[in-house]
Specification:
The protein is largely without helices or strands and about 280 residues long. Helices cover about 5% and strands about 0% of the residues. The protein has two domains: about 140 residues, E3 ubiquitin-protein ligase SopA (Pectate Lyase C-like); about 100 residues, Pectate Lyase C-like (3 Solenoid).
Length: about 280
């Protein structure tokens, strides 16, 4: 259970909390199972705080410092963490439908097996974050930095990645159907076996991306950059690759029935039958 003194002082507000911490030389913050439902704590100092299983539903934590905090299995439903610092924090198994993490710093954060549908990660820093096996259905990552992030087997149906940086993303067997990747950076991304059916990847940069056995049926890849991409064994049935650049791409064994290649660049492309297109 939470330390009653810590909980009482924190509920008095961020300023009072900081003054108390200064007087007590910043003790280890024990807020395990704390009831902070609807708490108003903007800019609160909660570095390395133990908030495991705490109820932060609807809490105002914008610009709070939660560096290295333990939020495992906490409730963050509709919480506001705008511009919060969560670098290196533990958010495994959190429940946070509708939470706001826009412009938050989540570099190196573990968010495995969390339930975060409809969450706002717009312009957030998620470099090297681990979001594997997490429910992120209809989440927004517009203009977020996800370079090196891990989305192994995550649920991301209808998620939005407009102009997001997904350089070297790891997304093995991830569910991304109907997701929006307009003008996103997916250079050297690993998307092996991903479900990208009906996704919008127009103007996306997929140079040297690994899309082996990816499901791209009905996907919009107009003007996408697929130079050097590995699409071997991919399902591209009905996909639209109008004006896409497939220079030196590998389509060995790919299903291209009804695929639209209108004005696509196919120079040095390895076709499904193994022949090189010139």
């Amino acid at each position: 259970m939470a330390n009653i003194q810590h909980l009482t002082k924190l509920k008095q507000g961020a300023t009072s909390w900081m003054n108390w911490l200064d007087r007590h030389h910043q003790p280890e913050i024990d807020l395990i199972n704390a009831d902070l439902h609807g708490a108003n704590l903007p800019e609160a100092y909660l570095v390395k705080a133990n908030l495991a299983r705490a109820d932060l539903t609807g809490a105002q934590l914008h610009q709070a410092n939660l560096t290295g905090a333990n939020l495992q299995s906490a409730y963050l439903i509709d919480a506001d963490l705008y511009q919060a610092n969560l670098i290196g924090s533990d958010l495994r198994s959190v429940m946070g439908r509708g939470a706001n993490f826009s412009q938050a710093n989540l570099i190196g954060t573990s968010i495995r097996q969390a339930r975060l549908p409809q969450v706002n990660f717009m312009e957030a820093k998620l470099n090297r974050a681990n979001l594997s096996e997490t429910n992120l259905v209809k989440a927004s990552f517009d203009r977020a930095d996800l370079s090196g992030a891990n989305f192994f087997e995550a649920e991301l149906q209808s998620a939005s990645f407009y102009q997001a940086n997904l350089y070297r993303l790891k997304a093995i067997a991830t569910h991304l159907s109907h997701s929006y990747f307009l003008a996103s950076n997916l250079v050297q991304a690993s998307l092996v076996g991903c479900d990208l059916r009906w996704a919008n990847l127009s103007y996306a940069n997929l140079q040297s991306a690994d899309l082996q056995h990816a499901k791209l049926r009905g996907a919009n890849l107009t003007r996408a950059n697929l130079t050097g991409a590995n699409l071997s064994g991919a399902n591209l049935r009905g996909a639209n690759l109008t004006n896409a650049n497939l220079w030196q791409a590998n389509l060995t064994g790919a299903d291209i029935e009804d695929t639209i290649f209108n004005k696509a660049v196919l120079t040095a492309t390895i076709m499904p039958d193994g022949t090189v297109h010139y």
